[in-house]
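Re: that backbone. Tokens:
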């Protein structure tokens, strides 16, 4: 039976100790949960397991044998595969090429055997029940399918220890059900599964035990999942009680439409769409993967081409052909894929905060005002509780929640009237979510109008004033808050064919 032991594992980065003498054990034939707030050290531990990081101290033992990984290849050769929340795929390469990157089958001549390459990729895609063409390029696929490709890629190595880092953050319910089937099969095969997730309901459903980290330290291991409660687990994660994570705050909302979208059509939509957004309102958009929510938001923002229709801001018709047109008019966008579309990964927290609003604070309209740059960054780091050793820290070294708050700070420093947020709490811990929701209420109270796209139905019902439900590229209904009903919303969101199958 596989047994993974980590003894005295420590890891420090400039200004922060990410892991402090961690002692944990994961057994074969079980699914071990690993939870904690952003910055608790979970991802650092997985990167040490994968060979991406070398620990400053400590020992990794697999079945009694000590290992010291100097690369990800060393970890793979030892039977460890890690599936990260932030995808590591090459957009310009095909699905099959990505899945077998570095392990291409060869002919006797030494050339790549493409027939074997695509046959192997097809076999593993079929195993995870994904109908994806292995010949298409990664860049043409939605994030949900890319996530499943990462999972198929890890399974291809036949690893004995498999770690999942927020694997469901981009998946539909159907894909989540399929993933859980795969994980349970791996458990039955005696493999060691480590499951990292902020979705605690998944931890309770799937895991045999759960380990809690906080501030880089081991807090507690719970082995009796039957008696463990959600509130106890949250308390151990964040160090305090959070009775109502959403804490919805009712407030008067003006009838005035800040944003009006009329007969709008862009790539990814089936029919023209119309809706309005009122001043100080939080308008939710819910739908299953492929419903067209992200496509609609990118079209409004100018990231994709508008084909038809009219967009009005404060009653005035506007032509938005690129994101810069939106930004100048006070419309900002927090993208779903913060790694590739949100942050500038190799730049500092300060630069990521200031990059938009600095254009209004230049010396002689040309030179950077270093004093303003410092004060603006420090001010928002304090206001939004951005945890970073300093404003000079490279942003890719921060946790997902702190990266997201940095992007939010970027837009709050500008003249903002409309904020579009696509899956804003994806991969963010429960405590930071609570902070994020309170920031949204404060913005709405200050008159900023918010569109929030989310696949998390309890979240969207918990924080929004109204809710637009999308299905197959169209809005099927817009509900008032007192009309929110989980079953009704899911029924509206389900594709027509699925409904017909349910009735049959």
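Recovered sequence:
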């Amino acid at each position: 039976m596989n047994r993974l032991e980590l003894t005295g594992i420590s890891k420090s980065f400039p200004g922060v100790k990410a892991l402090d003498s961690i002692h944990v054990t994961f057994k074969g034939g079980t699914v071990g949960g690993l939870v904690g707030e952003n910055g608790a050290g979970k991802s650092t531990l997985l990167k040490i397991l994968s060979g991406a990081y070398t620990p400053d101290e400590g020992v990794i033992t697999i079945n009694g044998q000590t290992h010291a990984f100097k690369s990800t290849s060393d970890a793979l050769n030892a039977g460890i595969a890690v599936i990260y929340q932030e995808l590591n795929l090459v957009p310009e390469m095909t699905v099959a090429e990505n899945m077998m990157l570095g392990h291409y089958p060869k002919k006797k001549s030494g050339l790549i055997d493409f027939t074997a390459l695509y046959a192997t990729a097809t076999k593993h895609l079929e195993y995870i029940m994904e109908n994806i063409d292995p010949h298409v390029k990664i860049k043409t696929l939605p994030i949900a399918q890319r996530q499943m490709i990462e999972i198929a890629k890890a399974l291809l190595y036949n690893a004995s220890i498999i770690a999942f880092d927020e694997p469901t953050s981009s998946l539909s319910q159907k894909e989540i059900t399929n993933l859980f089937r795969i994980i349970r099969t791996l458990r039955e095969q005696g493999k060691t599964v480590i499951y990292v997730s902020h979705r605690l309901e998944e931890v309770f459903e799937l895991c045999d035990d759960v380990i809690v980290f906080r501030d880089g330290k081991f807090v507690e291991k719970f082995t009796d999942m039957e008696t463990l409660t959600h509130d106890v687990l949250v308390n151990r994660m964040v160090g305090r009680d959070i009775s109502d994570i959403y804490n919805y705050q009712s407030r008067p909302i003006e009838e005035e439409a800040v944003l009006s979208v009329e007969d709008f059509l862009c790539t990814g939509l089936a029919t023209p769409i119309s809706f309005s957004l009122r001043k100080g309102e939080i308008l939710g958009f819910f739908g299953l993967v492929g419903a067209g929510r992200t496509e609609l938001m990118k079209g409004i923002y100018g990231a994709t081409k508008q084909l038809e229709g009219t967009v009005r801001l404060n009653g005035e018709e506007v032509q938005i052909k690129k994101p810069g047109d939106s930004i100048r008019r006070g419309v900002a966008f927090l993208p779903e894929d913060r790694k590739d579309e949100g942050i500038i990964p190799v730049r500092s927290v300060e630069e990521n905060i200031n990059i938009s609003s600095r254009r209004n604070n230049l010396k002689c309209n040309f030179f950077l005002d270093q004093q303003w740059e410092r004060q603006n960054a420090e001010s928002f780091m304090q206001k939004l509780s951005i945890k970073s050793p300093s404003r000079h820290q490279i942003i890719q070294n921060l946790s997902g929640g702190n990266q997201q708050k940095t992007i939010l700070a970027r837009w709050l420093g500008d003249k903002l009237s409309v904020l579009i947020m696509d899956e804003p709490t994806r991969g963010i811990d429960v405590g930071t979510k609570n902070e994020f929701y309170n920031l949204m209420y404060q913005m709405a109270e200050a008159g900023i109008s918010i569109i929030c796209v989310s696949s998390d139905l309890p979240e969207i019902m918990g924080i929004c004033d109204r809710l637009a439900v999308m299905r197959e590229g169209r809005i099927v209904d817009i509900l008032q808050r007192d009309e929110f009903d989980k079953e009704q919303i899911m029924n509206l969101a389900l594709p027509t064919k699925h409904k017909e199958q349910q009735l049959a």
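The domain at 3-238 is CATH 3.40.50.300 (Rossmann fold). Residues 79 and 234 are 32 Å apart (CA to CA).
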